[in-house]
Structure of NADPH-protochlorophyllide oxidoreductase:
Amino acid sequence: MTTSLLSSAVSIHKEGKSLVSLKETSFMGTSVGEHLNTEFKSTILRSKRECNRRNGSIRAQTAVMTPATNRASQERKKTLRKGSVVITGASSGLGLATAKALAETGKWHVIMACRDFLKAERAAKSAGMSKENYTIMHLDLSSLDSVRQFVDSFKKSGRPLDVLVCNAAVYQPTAREPAFTAEGFELSVGTNHLGHFLLSRLLMDDLNKSDYPSKRLIIVGSITGNTNTLAGNVPPKANLGDLRGLAGGLNGLNSSAMIDGGNFDGAKAYKDSKICNMLTMQEFHRRYHEETGITFASLYPGCIATTGLFREHIPLFRTLFPPFQKHITKGYVSEEESGKRLARVVSDPSLTKSGVYWSWNKDSASFENQLSQEASDVDKARKVWDVSEKLVGLA
Ligand code: LMG
Ligand code: NDP
Ligand code: PMR
């Protein structure tokens, strides 16, 4: 234990470069550097704000000079229709809590994209969501046919798409052998990354067509995929290597089931899939933000230690993990709180910045967090995109 603690500590140190190492190191989910350079950042922010205010006032004056436009925009504000948001994996945990938080406002219609219709219906009912605020549609992310069928049915439904939340995930920490998706990809990466990759690519047009004031694509990430944090240094660590396994199709036959080509490890596969999620969000941002105005974002919602994500872990872990996170790391958040956080990333008018990985501090205030070196590697993001495109049949 001491040895691994020490060696992990060394590896953190090695990864960074002097001051950078301090800046990039997060402890308990909050960047250490965040505290150190708050002063510095707030100075920059202040001057940026000054600048915005100046530009803003010019814009405001223009608006006053064109009363017709002004009236039109006021009119639009008054009649702002309900937002339409698709949330994958909304039948439990974070997805359900987010659906509930959004539905409760009365301003959103939530399309719960779930693999188990009955479970989703029961979950929505027991969360107290009223019928007019949600629709359940079938989606099994571990089958690309199902993803395509979902997209077809969604398009036929005629509903607009204002926000898409890629939230569903599986975690197989105790599996000795890999399991596979319908197309034969290792299950965690196949579901968490490839299923969502195809889904979001196929729904880009619909998002782009939305006339909602702020359209967004949100892909849930996590701290454990980020090796610039303590949590990300608990073995096995995420690492995509040179993507040889992914390029080979993750089928465990003529290629490894792991992205980096190594031996199967369920916990690592999950963490790798989260890196892919965070890289994909950034690649979307680079390719589409300017042209479409869509906001692309990822987040670490906090450690929601009680969700179904840990259903396959050993009972001892499931018993000890919540008190460990509550009392020792203090990284714990309730499902309700995490749902409010994600709901803000969906709907808060102040969280429109694109390309951001959001996290929250202890007072539940959001901040733009730093991703690890690998999770922000531009070259790797492009490669993951290109290889994934081939695997899901888009290229
Ligand atoms: C792997 O094991 C499994 O092999 C794999 O199959 C998969 O499950 C994977 O990530 C999932 O885990 C990881 C394993 C070993 O971790 C454990 O088994 C520990 C389980 C922890 C669960 C909770 C423990 C509870 C403890 C007691 C709580 C009691 C409750 C309390 C109530 C409270 C009352 C008040 O992991 C290891 O190998 C251990 C090594 C851990 C390494 C940690 C990494 C550290 C790195 C870095 C150091 C940096 C230093 C900075 C420090 C700053 C300090 C100020
Ligand atoms: P849950 O297991 O509670 O929720 C996961 C959801 O994904 C469930 O609704 C599940 O459906 C669904 N799902 C799984 N496989 C598929 C599939 N093949 N097709 C469609 N839906 C599927 O876990 P969480 O709420 O904790 O996880 C939600 C997100 O939060 C994940 O992206 C996870 O990585 C992330 N996260 C979680 C953290 C935590 O501490 N819990 C921390 C950081 C990030 P079903 O109900 O049918 O099983
Ligand atoms: Mg971790 C320092 C804080 C911290 C935080 C915020 C998390 C979050 N974890 C922390 C620390 C530690 N964890 C330490 C010191 C240990 C060794 C005792 C530890 C262990 C541990 C295990 C075995 N942690 C875990 C596991 C899991 O199986 C979970 C996992 O890796 O799932 C992939 C997990 C998690 N710890 C977290 C979070 C958020 C998770 C789970 C989920 C996720 O990343 O999506």
User: Anything to note?
Assistant: Residues 88-89, 91-95, 114-116, 119, 139-142, 167-170, 191, 220, 222, 300-301, 303-305, 307-309 surround NDP (ligand 2) (CB under 6 Å). The mean pLDDT is 85. The chain has 14 helices and ten strands. The longest strand covers residues 108-114.
